[in-house]
Amino acid sequence: MPENPADAARPAEAAARPMPSEILGLRASIDNIDSALVHLLAERFKMTQRVGELKAVGGLPPADPTRDRQQIDRLKAVAQGAGLDPEFAEQFRNFIVSEVIRHHERIAAEHAAGRRKGELPPLDTYS
Ligand SMILES: C=C(O[C@@H]1C=C(C(=O)O)C=C[C@H]1O)C(=O)O
């Protein structure tokens, strides 16, 4: 079994061909963008974690359909202007938010079970 499953489908002569330097340059930028996306997502999850704690303490439900609708409408317009498929933008947003809701439900359950203190820990976005 090859280390990379994609190699299995690639003919040997294609694998031996040198990679054009432009592709290597593009891949370096793709890697930079992927790193930035991971950092941005990590910061976003820190913010949503805090919202989840505040909601649990305040007795608010994890999901907020009004906010969902506003976010989807706004992001689809942003995607349209940026040349990104708006349906993809909506699905990507939904993928992230479904994970956020899962976190919020867990935080609320822990809070209800008394496994979390009533007081909120200080927000530290750089921890
Ligand atoms: C973070 C919140 O909770 C949920 C998650 C959202 C998000 O990840 O952006 C948006 C709305 C809510 O469904 C919020 O209400 O702001």
Overview of this protein structure:
The structure is a single chain. The chain is an all-alpha fold and 127 residues long. It has a single domain (20-112), classed as Up-down Bundle (Chorismate Mutase Domain, subunit A). It contains five helices and no strands. The chain is elongated and about 60 Å long. Bound molecules: the ligand C=C(O[C@@H]1C=C(C(=O)O)C=C[C@H]1O)C(=O)O. The ligand C=C(O[C@@H]1C=C(C(=O)O)C=C[C@H]1O)C(=O)O binds at residues 48, 51, 63-64, 67-68, 71, 97, 100-101.
Largest sheet: none
Name given to the CATH homologous superfamily: Chorismate mutase
CATH topology: Chorismate Mutase Domain, subunit A
- β-strand amount: under 5%
**Terminal-residue CA separation:** 40 Å
H and E order: HHHHH
Task: Please bin the fraction of helical residues.
Answer: over 70%
C-alpha Rg, in Å?
21 Å
CATH class annotation:
Mainly Alpha
Average pLDDT confidence is 89
- Poorly predicted regions: none
Instruction: Assign the structural class, choosing from mainly alpha, mainly beta, alpha/beta, alpha+beta, or little secondary structure.
Output: mainly alpha
Alpha plus pi helix count? 5
Q: Can you count the beta strands?
A: 0
Into how many domains do the coordinates divide?
1
Question: What is the overall shape?
Answer: elongated
Unique ligands? the ligand C=C(O[C@@H]1C=C(C(=O)O)C=C[C@H]1O)C(=O)O
- CATH architecture title: Up-down Bundle
Pfam family, one: CM_2
Protein name: Chorismate mutase domain-containing protein
Domain Chorismate mutase: 17-108
Organism: Isoptericola cucumis
